[in-house]
Amino acid sequence: MTFLKISGTLLLLLLAANLWWRGSSRRRSLPCPTIFAGFLESAWMERLIGTQVTLDRIGLEPGQRVLEVGVGPGRLLIPAAERVLPGGEVSGLDIQPGMIERLKARADRSDVSNLTTVIGDATQPHFPTGSFDVIFLCTVLGEIPDRVAALQQCYEALKDDGRLSITEIFPDPHFQSRTTVQRLAKSVGFRPQTIHGQWYFHTINFIKNGEA
Q1: What CATH number is given to the structural domain containing 56?
Q2: Is the separation of the CB atoms in 123 and 146 below 8 Å?
Q3: 3-state secondary structure 12-37
Q4: For residue range 3-39, what is the model confidence (pLDDT) as tens digits?
Q5: What's 45-86 look like in SS3?
Q6: How far is residue 7's CA from residue 152's CA, in Å, rounded to a whole number?
Q7: What is the DSSP letter of 118?
Q8: Are 72 and 32 in contact (CB under 8 A)?
Q9: CB within 10 Å: which end of the chain, N or C, has fewer?
């Protein structure tokens, strides 16, 4: 079998796996497995998928209370904890206990003390109404079968005029287009504020009870 045939076969297999994972996520929660956490934590991966760019787009400020939904091993939340100092606090929510354990270990190694964690389903209430200034999700929305319910929980947990930030990166198997993200967020009451990036790597910020 020639190199081109092998490459084509591998590409088709990857595409098929991508489509299967994407379709299955509409019926049940299929987040990125904990066994891939080390890959997500690598410096190479942080540069490839724009950790600092994403945080810049979210626009965190000192003193804010911030929640990341689908926090994983903390690729974004650890540096976010530093950005909200002094006086700010961050929380991470994830459905996988293994990811939360990785996050706690990484926070300990980085001497991050303004971070708390919660294990739970994003479609269920875990925080009092109006707890946060900013809530963000990165390549997570498509992993949640009931995306509207998860966004409704974000809406309730945000303060009035709080910010929801959603980042999507292609070719993540759960990739959500800008049109889809805006439609879903608007359906629960969010108003678009800013759109950053191109179709394949975009961040959209929304405001609760704010003006577009």
Answers
A1: 3.40.50.150
A2: yes
A3: HHHHHHHHHHHHHCCCCCCCCCHHHH
A4: 455 544 544 443 444 444 445 545 555 676 655 555 5
A5: HHHHCCHHHHHHHHCCCCCCEEEEECCCCCCCHHHHHHHCCC
A6: 43
A7: E
A8: yes
A9: N
